[in-house]
Amino acid sequence: MLSSSVALADELKITIADVPDSSGSLMVALMASEGEFKDTAPAVASMILPARQGSVALTLHDVEPGEYAVRVMHDQNGNQKLDANMIGIPREPWGFSNNAAGSFGPPGWKDVTFTVEGHKEITINLNQ
User: What is the architecture of the domain spanning 11-125?
Assistant: First the structure.
């Protein structure tokens, strides 16, 4: 008797909505800990994608089951950072998983986290 088992890898589909224009690129970071979220450790994965007005989707395969967060920045001028004004308010579009927004700063880790188990789809609306 023959038996086969197929292991299905977990995957995460991320749709970035409300991209205002096709200038520059989208910088996407997948984080698995609060340290990664606070930039004290490198992100699990990071990607730079060409911006496209409207929406951009990507799928990450072989994602380990667990708790994650996603941060997106639309680097419109290509300097590889999120530009801000003198008091720290972003001048370029940005977004977090759960469409979380902070008050006088970025949202907290608990506000941006979600669980990947099997196939997960999220949409992040960019703030202008």
Answer: Sandwich (2.60)
Place of tokens 């395969």: 61
Q: Check: CB of residue 28 under 8 Å from CB of residue 71.
A: yes
Dist CA 69 CA 6 (whole Å): 28
Instruction: Give me the count of residues in the chain.
Output: 128
2 vs 69, more confident: 69
- pTM value is 0.90
What's the pLDDT at 128?
80
Exposed, middle or buried by CB within 10 Å (0-12, 13-18, 19+), for 50? exposed
The residue extents of the domains of the chain are 11-125
The two structure tokens encoding residue 122: 């999220």
